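User: tokens in, sequence out, please.
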């Protein structure tokens, strides 16, 4: 059997946790974890440890949280771990060349798309928003250019018509963790092979912005539905009903035609509010969250807040 590799792990959110846990359970020792500084999280904005830091602390693994990854003191501390390989999973910052060169085998990344498509910070969300039928995970070499390194292996995952980005990302985190360990074994044994990316087929998945959540009712119903799914769990798709913000958590495409203007309530049933869209069809609201209140089924919302046909939903 080939020698075990000393691994330095770079990651921050929950997506990275299965990869870290898989490494900890493997024969390859995790000599240290690099994660972003503690920041306010959740509704109360309480400063808490990142999910990756929590796992590292559970296993008494050394942790570095540099404010500046280009700080020479950080490079010195990383070098002191004597890593053979760096593994990156949603760390959240670009890694400079001098850091990439520290591990003897360089660094590899668990990226949540089928590269070269959807390079960047929000690959899962953008794939769902775009209505893609499939996505996956690529294990790739980390290079200076964003998500442009050679590819070691891929795993595919279909995207169902009602899947949210949270559901897809959860599955990809686990699939990626399994694939990661296979690639590390190949690197350790010297059998790993890298395939260059086709730059002509590359696309970019920029970070989500809060203002993207405002629903544009002039779009077809399926496009709005995909945004509802893709912007879950943040920043959420939202609209305004009688001046109050309404977060749309779950929707359904209704292909029945309507002549109502986009954003107009075309029908109200016991369980749904059907809204006319720019495609001449309807988007049925199934689960919502009025501002300052809990998430609820439309049926429960209507019990205390009747909505009339003809009311307009707006962007402000």
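Assistant: Sequence out:
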């Amino acid at each position: 059997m080939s020698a075990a590799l000393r691994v330095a792990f770079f990651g921050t959110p929950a997506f990275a946790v299965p990869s870290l846990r898989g490494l900890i359970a493997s024969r390859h020792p995790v000599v240290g974890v690099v994660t972003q500084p503690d920041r306010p999280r959740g509704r109360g904005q309480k400063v808490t440890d990142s999910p990756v830091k929590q796992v590292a602390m559970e296993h008494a693994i050394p942790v570095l949280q540099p404010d500046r990854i280009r700080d020479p003191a950080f490079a010195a501390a990383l070098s002191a771990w004597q890593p053979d390989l760096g593994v990156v999973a949603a760390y959240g910052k670009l890694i400079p060349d001098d850091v990439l060169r520290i591990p003897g085998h360089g660094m590899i990344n668990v990226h949540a798309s089928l590269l070269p498509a959807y390079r960047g910070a929000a690959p899962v969300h953008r794939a769902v928003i775009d209505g893609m039928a499939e996505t996956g995970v690529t294990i790739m070499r980390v290079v200076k250019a964003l998500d442009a390194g050679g590819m070691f292996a891929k795993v595919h995952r279909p995207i169902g018509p009602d899947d949210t980005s949270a559901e897809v990302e959860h599955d990809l985190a686990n699939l990626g963790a399994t694939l990661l360990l296979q690639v590390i074994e190949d690197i350790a044994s010297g059998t790993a092979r890298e395939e260059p990316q086709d730059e002509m087929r590359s696309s970019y998945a920029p970070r989500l912005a809060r203002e993207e959540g405002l629903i544009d009712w002039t779009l077809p119903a399926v496009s709005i539905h995909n945004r509802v799914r893709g912007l879950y769990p943040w920043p959420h798709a939202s609209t305004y009903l009688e001046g109050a913000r309404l977060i749309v958590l779950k929707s359904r495409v209704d292909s029945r035609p309507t002549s109502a203007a986009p954003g107009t309530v075309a029908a109200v049933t016991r369980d749904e509010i059907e809204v006319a869209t720019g495609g001449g069809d309807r988007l049925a609201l199934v689960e919502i969250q009025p501002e300052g209140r809990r998430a609820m089924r439309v049926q429960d919302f209507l019990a205390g807040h009747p909505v009339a046909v003809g009311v307009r939903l707006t962007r402000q």
